[in-house]
Amino acid sequence: MAARLNICFVHLFVLVAQLVAQNTHLMTMSIMSGWQFQCANSTCLPFATIRMLNIRNCQIACLDQVQCQAITFHQSSSNCELFSNVLNQNRNISINAGTITMIDMSGTRFSNGSITVSTTATTTACSSLFLDPTTYSTGSTPFSMVVADVNNDNHLDIIVANSVSNNVGILFNIGNGTFRSQTVYSVGTNPRSVAVADVNNDNKSDIVVANYNSNTTSVLLNAGNGTFLNQTIYSVGANPVSIVIADMNNDNKSDIIVANYNSSNIGILFNTGNGTFLNHSIFEVGSYPISLVVADVNNDNKPDIIVAKEYSNNISIILNMNNGVFLNKAIQVNSTHIISITVADVNNDNKPDIITVNCDANSIGILLNAGNGTFPNQITRSVGAYPRAVAVGDVNSDNIPDIAVVNAAVSNVGILLNTGNGTFLNQTTYSVGDTPASVALIDVNNDNKPDIIVANAGSDEINVILHC
Ligand SMILES: *[C@@H]1O[C@H](CO)[C@@H](O)[C@H](O)[C@H]1NC(C)=O
Ligand SMILES: *[C@@H]1O[C@H](CO)[C@@H](O)[C@H](O)[C@H]1NC(C)=O
Ligand SMILES: *[C@@H]1O[C@H](CO)[C@@H](O)[C@H](O)[C@H]1NC(C)=O
Ligand SMILES: *[C@@H]1O[C@H](CO)[C@@H](O)[C@H](O)[C@H]1NC(C)=O
Ligand SMILES: *[C@@H]1O[C@H](CO)[C@@H](O)[C@H](O)[C@H]1NC(C)=O
Ligand SMILES: *[C@@H]1O[C@H](CO)[C@@H](O)[C@H](O)[C@H]1NC(C)=O
Ligand SMILES: *[C@@H]1O[C@H](CO)[C@@H](O)[C@H](O)[C@H]1NC(C)=O
Ligand SMILES: *[C@@H]1O[C@H](CO)[C@@H](O)[C@H](O)[C@H]1NC(C)=O
Ligand SMILES: *[C@@H]1O[C@H](CO)[C@@H](O)[C@H](O)[C@H]1NC(C)=O
Ligand SMILES: *[C@@H]1O[C@H](CO)[C@@H](O)[C@H](O)[C@H]1NC(C)=O
Ligand SMILES: *[C@@H]1O[C@H](CO)[C@@H](O)[C@H](O)[C@H]1NC(C)=O
Ligand SMILES: *[C@@H]1O[C@H](CO)[C@@H](O)[C@H](O)[C@H]1NC(C)=O
Predict the structure, then answer these.
(1) Sign of the C-alpha dihedral, residues 271, 277, 280, 281?
(2) How many whole angstroms from 381 Cα to the centroid of ligand 9?
(3) Among residues 315, 317, 312, which one has the least CA distance to residue 288?
(4) Structural domain includes residue 291
(5) For residue 430, is it within any domain?
(6) Is residue 429 helix, strand or coil?
(7) Where residue 332 falls among pLDDT bands split at 50, 70, 90?
(8) Which InterPro entries match (predicted)?
(9) Confidence class of residue 392 from pLDDT cuts 50, 70 and 90?
(10) CA distances from 277 to 62, 210, 255, 256 (A)
C-alpha cells in the first residue's frame, strides 16, 4: 500500500494526512459507468483478471498493485480487470453497458464524472472465491444431505438426514441463498442416506431415505407445497447406507437403488408408477458396499451402477444389459478404504469418470473412463485428513468441473481446481463445522456460480458458503 501511495503521491498529497487517522485508504478515480476500457494493442491487455464481489473490492485490488492504473469491472461476471500501461491509450474507450471503468486520476485523461471513493481498510474484500460460511442448525448427526427444489419455487432447498434424530429436515431457501429453520419428518432408525426425485410422476420432488438400523427405506411423497405425506416403508437388506433414485428399466418411472452394507449386495426397488415400489431385487457385489452412484459408463444409453466397497481394492461396475438384466464387473483400484464415490466427466471427453474418496489415504482417486466402461488411467490427489465426501461443479467458470471435498478430521472443505484434462491443482481449504460428512457444490442464490453446502455430522449444522 505504501508503494501505491507513493505512485499516487502527487494526487493524494492533500488527502493522506486526514486519512491516516481514520485508518482508511483513499483513491480518486474517474468513474465511467457503461464504458469499457479498450486497448490499442495486445500489450495493454489486463495484467490480472480476478473475481470480486463488487466494484469497491475491485478498486481495492487495484490499490494493492503498484502497477495498476485502471480497472474495468464487469457487473455480469464480477470480473475485475486490472490494467497498467494505460498512458498511451489516450481516449480509447468503447461503450459496454455491463461494465464500469475507472481510471486513476494520476493519469488525468478522463476527468468527466470524477468521484472520490474512500473505503475503510477493514472492508472485507472477497479475497478468495468464497465468502464466510453461514450456519444453520439441523437435527442430531446429519450424515447425508441433498440440495433440491422441493416446493417448486425455483429455489434450491436443503434436505438432510438427521441420523440420530431419526428424521429428515428440510431447510427452505427464501430465494437468495438464505434458508429457513428446518421442518422435520419422521423416518426409520438412523437414516444414513437421502435422495430426492419425483417418484410418482406429479412433477414434485419426493424424498427417499435409507434407514441403517431398521433395514428399510422410507418414501415421503410431496403433498404439493413442500409438505410431505407420512413415510411409506419398504424392507431392504441389512444396514442400507447409500441410496439413489434412477430409472433402471427404461419405463420412465424412477426406481430406488440401495447399498445394503451388511448383506454384501445392492437392491433395486422397481417403481410401479404411482410411487409405490415392488420388493427389492438383489445383486451381489461383495462385502461392505458403502456408496453407490448411477451413470452410463459404457455409452449404451442405459444407466449402470457403480458401487464402492469399504474394504475392497475393487469397485463393482454393474452394467445394465437390458431392462433390468445386469452384469457385474470389477475394476481394480489401488485404494483400500474407499468411503464414498461419485461420477463426473472431469476431462471433457463426454465420458463419465469416477471419483473415489480414499479416507485412510487422505486422498481422492480420479479414474478416467476409456469410453467402454474401463478405467485404465487412475490418478490420486492428496487432500486433508479423513476425507468423507466429494461434489463436483464449475467453481471458476471455465466450463470444466472442479471438485469439493470435505475433510472430516480437520473440519474443512477443500476445492481442487481442474486444469482441464482431469488433473487438479492442490486443494484450497475453507473452514466448516465439526466432522463434515456430506457436501454439495450448487448455485443456491441464482448468480450462476456454485456455492458450497456442507452438512457437519459432529456439530449438527449445515454450512452455506456462498461464491463471491
Ligand atoms: C482503439 O482501440 C481499437 C481496438 O483495440 C483500435 O482499433 C483503435 O485504433 C484504437 N483507437 C485509438 C484512437 O487508439
Ligand atoms: C502497443 O501500444 C503501446 C502503448 O501505446 C506501445 O508502446 C507499443 O509500441 C504498441 N505495440 C505495438 C506492437 O503496436
Ligand atoms: C461529462 O460529460 C457529459 C456528457 O458529455 C456532460 O454533460 C457533463 O457536463 C460532463 N461533466 C463534466 C464534469 O465535465
Ligand atoms: C436474503 O433475504 C433476507 C430477507 O429478505 C435478508 O434478511 C437477507 O439479508 C438476504 N441475504 C442475502 C445474502 O442477501
Ligand atoms: C437389520 O439387519 C441386521 C443384520 O442382519 C440385524 O442384526 C438387525 O437386527 C436388523 N434390524 C432390524 C430392525 O430388523
Ligand atoms: C400444503 O398442502 C397440504 C395438503 O394439500 C395441506 O394440508 C397444507 O395445509 C398445505 N400447506 C401449506 C403451507 O400450504
Ligand atoms: C403421520 O405420522 C404421525 C406421527 O408419526 C401420526 O401421528 C399421524 O397420525 C400420521 N398421519 C397419518 C395420516 O397417517
Ligand atoms: C399403485 O399401483 C399399484 C400397482 O399398479 C397398486 O397395487 C396400488 O394400489 C397403487 N397405489 C396407489 C396409491 O395408487
Ligand atoms: C497402483 O499403484 C502402482 C504403484 O504405484 C502402479 O504401478 C499401478 O499402475 C497402480 N494401479 C492402478 C490400477 O492404478
Ligand atoms: C476399452 O477401450 C480401451 C481404449 O480404447 C481399450 O484399450 C480396451 O481394450 C477396451 N476394453 C474393452 C473391454 O473393450
Ligand atoms: C494435464 O495437463 C497438465 C498441465 O497442463 C499436464 O502436466 C499433464 O501431464 C496433463 N495430463 C494428462 C493426463 O494429459
Ligand atoms: C501440492 O501438494 C503436494 C503434496 O501435499 C506438495 O508436495 C506440493 O508442494 C504442493 N504443491 C503446491 C504448488 O503447493
Answers:
(1) negative
(2) 14
(3) 312
(4) yes
(5) no
(6) strand
(7) confident
(8) FG-GAP, Integrin_alpha_N, Pan_app
(9) very high
(10) 60, 14, 8, 8
Residue nearest to atom 4 of ligand 5 (CA): 238
Count: domains in the chain: 1
If you write DSSP's letter for every residue of 206-250 in order, what string do you get?
A: EEEEEETTTTEEEEE-B-SSS-BPPPEEEE-SSSEEEEEEE-SSS
Query: What is the spatial distance between Cα 377 and Cα 183, in angstroms, rounded to a whole number?
Result: 44
- Residue 34 DSSP label: E
CATH number for position 143 = 2.120.10.30
Ligand 8 centroid–CA 274 distance in Å is 6
Q: Whose CA is nearest to atom 13 of ligand 3?
A: 112
Q: Which ligand is nearest to the CA of 186?
A: 7
pLDDT at 419 over 80: yes
DSSP state of 230: P
Structure confidence at residue 320 (pLDDT) = 93
Phi-psi region of 428 (alpha: psi -120 to 50; beta: other; left: phi over 0): beta
Q: Residue 256 Cα, ligand 5 centroid: separation in angstroms?
A: 20
The DSSP secondary structure of 92-159, one letter per residue, reads -EEEEEEEEEEEEGGG-S--TTEEEEEEETT-----SSB---EEEE-SS-EEEEEEE-SSSSSS-EEE
Average the pLDDT over each of 214-218, 285-289, 311-315 and give the range with the smallest value.
311-315
Span between the terminal Cα atoms of the chain, in Å: 24
Residues touching ligand 11 (Cβ under 6 Å) are 419, 421, 423
Rounded to 5°, the CA angle 302-308-312 comes to: 135
Helix (H, G, I), strand (E, B) or coil at 440: strand
Atom of ligand 3 nearest to the CA of 114: 13
Distance CA 322, CA 408 (A): 40
DSSP code string of 320-356:
EEETTEEEEEEEE-S-S-EEEEEEE--SSSSS-EEEE
CA 105 to chain centre: 41
- Read off the DSSP letter of residue 262: T
Is the CB of 227 within 6 Å of ligand 7?
no
Structural domain includes residue 360: yes
Taking residue 284's Cβ as centre, other Cβ atoms within 10 Å add up to 11
Instruction: Answer whether residue 124 shows pLDDT above 80.
Output: no
Map grid coordinates 486444469 to a residue. Answer: 419
Q: pLDDT band at residue 30, thresholds of 50, 70 and 90? A: low
Predicted pLDDT of residue 33: 59
| Domain membership of residue 171 as a residue range | 139-384
Quick check: 78 pLDDT over 70?
A: yes
Rounded to the nearest 5 percent, the helix, strand and coil shares of the chain are 10, 45, 45
Beta bridge partners of 404: 391, 415
Q: Domain for residue 149, yes or no?
A: yes
Give bridge partners of residue 326 from the DSSP assignment: 320
Strands 142-148 and 134-137: unpaired
Q: Which ligand is nearest the CA of 110, by number?
A: 3
